[in-house]
Amino acid sequence: MRGPPLSRRASPDIVIRPGRDEDAPAIRALIDASRAEFPGPAGPADRLGDLARPATHYAKRRGALFIAAQGEDIIGLVASAPSATEGTIELADLQVRRDLRGGGLALRLLNAVETASRGMQRLQLWCDTRADAAQRFFEKHGYLREGPIRVREDSSKALEFAYAKPLAGIQVISLDAAAAASADRRLGDILTLAANSDAQLPLLSGTEARRYWRGVSADVAGGRRVLLAGWVEGVLAGAVQLDINTPPYQDHRGEVQHLLILPAYRGGGLALALMAALETAARARGRRLLTLNAMAGGPAEALARATHWQEGGRIPGFTVTARGVPCDMLFFWKALG
Description:
By secondary structure, this protein is α+β, with helices and mostly antiparallel strands. It has helices at residues 24-35, 54-60, 105-116, 132-140, 177-182, 184-197, 206-221, 270-284, 299-306; strands at 14-18, 64-70, 73-82, 88-96, 122-128, 144-145, 150-151, 159-166, 170-175, 225-232, 235-243, 253-261, 289-295, 310-320, 326-335. Strands 1, 2, 3, 4, 5, 6, 7 and 8 form an 8-stranded mixed sheet that branches. A 7-stranded mixed sheet has the order 9-10-11-12-13-15-14, with helices on both faces. Keywords: Acyltransferase, Transferase.
């Protein structure tokens, strides 16, 4: 069997390695090329700090600088350093040469800095509001919008979104409207994967799942719904909702809806953490009585009984699964102290 023509050389393997001070000229060229993609005045490449000695700069800050190298060429970088907020790492920059984007290199670099950040509680970053592809990338990997937009303090005056995600253990966060809207891609994936293993959930396409979550985000923005998301070791792996869209004279109660956990993360404590956080959120809003429904014999019933919910009744054949099988529905309630 003949091999490839001798004149065609295979591309060198891409290596992720710690950055060195002598990488400075190539780092500056990579950053300048990236900034040239957006119109307007170009600010100094100061996000990485001292570009004359980048490795020394990050070593002094107890941070990390990683380079993606292909042979002699530097084709990507990522840098991080401790934030002023205790337990938080800030992603200073993540760059991949434009012609190599979309092949997984950005994720390799992000994984490198997340691995280097083990032991910290969260990772935060700022993303140019014009960088749609970068926003989609971070949202896909569990980073959500938080806080107001800022103006970069350089001559570019670029507007930037803040993003963050928890890194350690099981953490649950109540999402505001901006965070909920930025979560629709990842939560859409969770809904689709959960539906494939849960007969009660309808099978949805990715587009349909995202459309559903956009509706949830609108309810969060309108104060009609609480959305809690849960991370396990940096992975956005579950969510639960509290419907508080009740008449004014019924504002003592709320309904638990759509507890979703990625199949690979079930049984590890995330569902319990989400339900505990939901009860706290309900109390904070003056809701003293919660209700939920669960398919008989399903995991939701088991969770409700394990967390001391009271059964209020059963209706035979109340629901039909996405596969067309009729099932009994159980109704539970819980009074909050």
